[in-house]
């Protein structure tokens, strides 16, 4: 629970009810973002969509207001990462969960410590902690550049056949696109290996035994 008193303390009753009904994690989810600016609402929605598209799991409109059982906290302690992105890690623990919707109030005191720069850094931290897809984009861009070079080569050949080729233009452009594409493709392939090493270095638990017979 944040210390700025914006989270509704009355939601705790719902947390306890959810826990008593067998849920190990109960998320506090904002029912609306009317008090936020249009920019913050739009960027928050975009963040959750991009995060989901990247293959990571999260709970939309949930900050860090939640109830967690002792068992889930023990499971969370098995993650030894220095840069813990809790909004992405907690949903991967695998326990039964529920949501309690509440309306977030106005800040009682102080000012927000999350300007645009910090929000962007937070989004980058979340994406890079759970996805290596950005590395695949480099590979894709390299392949696309090579395809463009091949297309330009075909275009130059056709232009030569019709006598419309511009001397020197084709060889220069094809060389730029082809060499650039090969460089990006090589970086992308190296990046794929580095990404696998990066994910393995986190040593995240693959499973957790809840009960035994």
What does this molecule look like?
The structure is a single chain. With 213 residues, the chain is mainly α. It folds into two domains: 11-130, no CATH class; 133-201. Helices cover 54% and strands 9% of the residues. The chain is built from seven helices and three strands. The chain has a three-stranded mixed sheet. The two termini are 37 Å apart. The relative contact order is 0.14. The mean pLDDT is 83.
What structural class results from the helix and strand content?
mainly alpha
> Unreliable segments (pLDDT under 50, ≥5 consecutive)?
none
Number of H/I helices: 7
In angstroms, what separates the terminal alpha carbons? 37 Å
Mean pLDDT: 83
β-sheet strand percentage: 5-15%
User: How many domains, as an integer?
Assistant: 2
Number of strands: 3
The whole-angstrom Rg is: 25 Å
Q: What portion of residues is helical?
A: 40-55%
Q: Main β-sheet, in a few words? A: 3 strands, mixed
Principal-axis shape: elongated
Query: How are the strands of the biggest sheet laid out side by side?
Result: 2-1-3
Oligomer class: single chain
Query: Could you spell the SSE succession in H and E letters?
Result: HEHEHHEHHH
């Amino acid at each position: 629970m944040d210390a700025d008193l914006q989270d509704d303390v009355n939601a705790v009753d719902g947390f306890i009810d959810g826990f008593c009904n067998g849920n190990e994690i109960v998320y506090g989810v904002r029912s609306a973002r009317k008090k936020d600016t249009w920019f913050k609402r739009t960027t928050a929605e975009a963040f959750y969509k991009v995060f989901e598209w990247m293959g990571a799991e999260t709970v939309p409109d949930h900050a860090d207001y939640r109830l967690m059982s002792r068992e889930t906290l023990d499971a969370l302690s098995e993650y030894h990462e220095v840069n813990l992105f809790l909004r992405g890690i907690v949903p991967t623990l695998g326990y039964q969960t529920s949501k309690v919707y509440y309306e977030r109030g106005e800040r009682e005191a102080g000012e927000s410590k999350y300007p645009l720069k910090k929000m962007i850094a937070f989004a980058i931290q979340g994406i890079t902690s759970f996805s290596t897809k950005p590395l695949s984009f480099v590979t894709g861009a390299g392949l696309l550049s090579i395809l463009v070079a091949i297309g330009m080569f075909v275009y130059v050949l056709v232009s030569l056949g019709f006598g419309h080729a511009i001397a020197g233009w084709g060889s220069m452009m094809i060389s730029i696109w082809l060499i650039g594409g090969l460089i990006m493709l090589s970086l992308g392939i190296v990046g794929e290996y580095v990404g696998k090493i990066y994910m393995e270095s986190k040593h995240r638990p693959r499973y957790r035994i809840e009960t035994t017979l």
